[in-house]
């Protein structure tokens, strides 16, 4: 989630386990997809949010301002990765738009946090399709519907809090302690 990432000041001493990444300006985005080892089914493109003071992931919305050329580049990139790495199941690819060009940051060869933005769009949910994709079957056009804009946001407490045992959480709450 980015908790370990920090800007380099030029003075720290690093170990062999540390690595450097060039900072690329632009919005943080992702693409969620199912893969069967040969082909990919793109579920959606997402805009990601981070904490203002750093790199900590704090949520996403299932919409982006990507144009067709960018979507085609990303679809090709996903197809090549699926084919080369034999990816299966739910996966996500994080990228940044650098002067309107998608620059890949990382491949998450696992269900990404954005899957919950699309779960309700699939009959039987995305875990069902994750398992089917691992066995080689991808959804068809009738297996999903795109109905709503959805977002997921993490709110970080500024201090330690305790919720009463009998607290009634709103129905939309997730990841309840």
Protein architecture, described:
The structure is a single chain. The chain is built from 2 helices and 6 strands; from the N terminus they run βββαββαβ. It has 177 residues and is α+β, with helices and mostly antiparallel strands. Strands 5-4-1-2-3-6 form a 6-stranded antiparallel β-sheet. A hairpin with a 3-residue loop joins strand 1 and strand 2. The two termini are 18 Å apart.
Mind summarizing the main beta sheet?
Answer: 6 strands, antiparallel
| Helix fraction by DSSP (H/I, runs of at least 4) | 10-25%
Number of helices: 2
pLDDT averaged over residues = 88
The coarse overall form would be: globular
CA radius of gyration: 18 Å
Query: How many strand segments?
Result: 6
How far apart are the first and last residues' alpha carbons, in Å? 18 Å
Low-confidence stretches: none
Structural class: alpha+beta
Query: How are strands sequenced across the largest beta sheet?
Result: 5-4-1-2-3-6
Task: Quote the beta fraction.
Answer: 25-35%
Order of helices and strands: EEEHEEHE
Give me some keywords for this one.
177 residues; globular; six-stranded antiparallel sheet; alpha+beta
């Amino acid at each position: 989630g980015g908790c370990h990432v920090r800007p380099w000041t030029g003075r720290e001493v690093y170990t062999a386990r540390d690595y450097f990444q060039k900072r690329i300006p632009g919005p943080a985005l992702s693409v969620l997809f199912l893969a069967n080892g040969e082909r990919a089914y793109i579920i959606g493109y997402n805009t990601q949010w981070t904490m203002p003071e750093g790199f900590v992931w704090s949520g996403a919305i299932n919409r982006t301002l990507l144009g067709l050329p960018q979507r085609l580049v990303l679809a090709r990139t996903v197809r090549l990765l699926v084919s080369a790495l034999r990816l299966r199941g739910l996966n996500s690819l994080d990228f940044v738009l650098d002067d309107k060009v998608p620059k890949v940051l990382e491949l998450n060869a696992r269900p990404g946090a954005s899957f919950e933005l699309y779960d309700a769009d699939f009959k039987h949910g995305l875990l069902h399709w994750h398992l089917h994709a691992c066995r080689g079957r991808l959804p068809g056009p009738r297996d999903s519907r795109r109905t709503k804009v959805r977002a997921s946001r993490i709110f970080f407490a500024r201090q330690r809090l305790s919720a009463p045992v009998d607290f009634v959480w709103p129905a939309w709450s997730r990841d309840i302690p």
